[in-house]
Amino acid sequence: MGKTREKLIKYSDTEHLLSYTVPEGMPSMVKYATNTWQLTSIGYDKTKLNMEMNVTLGGIMGFMMAPMMKMMMGKMAKITTDDFKYYVENGRPSEAKLKATRKLKK
User: 5-99 belongs to which CATH class?
Assistant: First the structure.
């Protein structure tokens, strides 16, 4: 999707939660997009990441592209959670994340 700008709208250390909106960089049919992450302990040395993406589409293009956008958001969520898992377990970004970052900087 290219470069985006994200704006933090909620953060809580005690709830292990952050939520942000994406005011720039989404396709014009996206009227509003948020993503909320929350970490929950599920036992000794184990944590679950709950991620909730909310995207509001508008216009005829939004209606027509909704199935494709849903598929793209699902793929993006999978990549993001895989990258996060790798980072937490290894203390550094994955090679795939580094490659994607280099691509964006070009």
Answer: alpha beta
